[in-house]
Amino acid sequence: MADDKSKTDNRDRSKVAGDEDYEIAYLSKQAGITPEQARELIKRYGNNRDKLMEHARKLT
User: What is the pTM of this model?
Assistant: First the structure.
């Protein structure tokens, strides 16, 4: 089921929801990597957005 984008709350936006395709697509676009690379980074380093971006920069 898709998220209701009109509902906002105090969720932790510093985390990447690795099971959501739109999150993977956003991360890969922002970092300039492929979605497969983004998924591998999440598996390897967890879902902390800052840490993922740090490691993604090393791939480019």
Answer: 0.75
